Amino acid sequence: MKIETSKGVVAVAVVLSLVAGLIGGLVPIAVVKLTAPEPAPVVAEVAPVVTEPAREGTYYFLAGNNADPFYVDGVKGFNEAAKSVGMKAEFVGPMDLNLAAQMKTFEELIASPETKGIFWYPMDFNAGEPFIKEAVAKGIPMVIGAADSPFKTRNAFIGYNNTVLGQQAAQWAAKLIDCKGEVGTISVNGPNLDERVKGFNEYLKSICPDVVIDERATHDGSAASEASTLEAYMIAHPNLTLLWWADGAAGIQAQIWKDKQDQGVKTLFLATDMPQATLQAVKDGVFVGSVAQDILLSVPCPVLAVKAP
């Protein structure tokens, strides 16, 4: 099962996938029937809504770097979807990119009788694989998001194609710079970002062979690391034409980047995803735009080109 969808829809799909793994059957929904017999007016007949009884246990969304505003919309959707089917939900994991802490939480979730399903945003597939196998063996529905495991032992993967997202970003970047100059990327570490940046670099090189593509710089997910990585990258690449911030934390850098613009920096800043701070930076012209998942549509690699005015 592979569902390629948007961040908002992902949460609903994840919870319904986990519910299906536990209870089977259909989730009750309200049905609206409109009839218009002549000469009577249109009448709306609404079937009674069946309230789902509260179910025992909790669905867990296990991630890393949980302080990142990237997760806000997804967690909101995850919680709402769980509530709609009578389940408790909880967002867990380290506030920073701490693999050992994430694996410790993973182990605790599998050992707990409270756990009825796990949606995992992976940091390391090799480290997580023993826990995935144990969860599946215990009958705990195991769903992976962000990037799919090469082992395929999970019950399902829900996400979008990171390679294609990177290619879409490269296509936009090529237009912005007219296939001239020097391009670089910054992101947090992670298998989804590895796929994304590789897709970006390879596609950009194929359509703009003369563009200089600098090696990606990575940060540890903290605001301090992001700021210091950005500063070091700009010092190392003073002639950068465009910088693509490939993870969802670009908005945190908005004021720093505005200050650089005020100091005369001409590099174009292309962001990713749609936290409020990022959208505001696009609106203010600090960022040239943001490549983001479509939070309304469920289609392969839904990408929005959120452009500066």
Describe this protein's structure:
- This protein is 39% helix and 21% strand.
- With 309 residues, the chain is α/β, with parallel strands linked by helices.
- It has two domains: 2-158, Response regulator (Rossmann fold, 3-Layer(aba) Sandwich); 162-307, Response regulator (Rossmann fold).
- The strands form three sheets. Strands 9, 10, 11, 12, 13, 14 and 15 form a seven-stranded mixed β-sheet that branches. A six-stranded parallel β-sheet has the order 1-8-7-6-4-5, sandwiched between helices. Strands 2-3 form a two-stranded antiparallel ribbon.
- Helix 1 packs parallel to helix 2, helix 3 (99-111) runs parallel beside helix 4 and helix 5 (162-177) crosses helix 6 (191-207).
- 43% of the residues are buried.
List the SSEs and their pairings.
Elements: E1 2-3, H1 7-22, E2 32-35, E3 43-46, E4 58-62, H2 72-84, E5 88-92, H3 99-111, E6 115-120, H4 125-137, E7 142-145, E8 156-158, H5 162-177, E9 182-188, H6 191-207, E10 212-213, E11 217-219, H7 223-236, E12 242-245, H8 254-262, E13 268-272, H9 276-283, E14 289-293, E15 303-307
Parallel strand pairs: 1-8, 4-5, 4-6, 6-7, 7-8, 9-10, 9-11, 9-12, 12-13, 13-14
Antiparallel strand pairs: 2-3, 14-15
